Amino acid sequence: MKPSSNVAFTDRVKSIQSERGSRAAYARQEQKGGWPNTVTPELAATLAEASSFYLATVSSDGQPYIQHRGGPKGFLRVIGETTLGFADFAGNRQYITTGNLGPVQNLSHI
Question: What's the pTM?
Fold first, then answer.
């Protein structure tokens, strides 16, 4: 199984890390499985207090897009250890993030 850090540490990134002297430290972290990739109780408590966050998506042809989301505390919720949900308040009706995500689940029952 690949470590969770492989999402960010591509072969090219690892090569640059080696050239610049930081690869050994990150390799030790990878041997332990990389960084955490689940929502811990501590993170869930922090997210429950959030009134704002940024959501990054990528279009089908690789164009990145970052959008701010905001609302009252509690609008961002932990659904599971790897799933977050949020109230999608009406905005500018461009639907760029929604389009990049593909099919979106309606979890209004939660």
Answer: 0.67
Q: What is the DSSP annotation of 65-110?
A: EEEEEE-STTSEEEEETTEEEE-----SS--HHHHHH-S----TT-
Q: What are phi and psi of 96, to 5 degrees?
A: -65, -50
Token digits of residue 15:
């090569």
Encode pLDDT of 77-103 as tens digits.
999 999 999 877 667 778 788 888 877
Query: Coil, strand, or helix at residue 21?
Result: coil
Spatial neighbors of 37 by CB under 8 A, at least 6 apart, are 4, 82
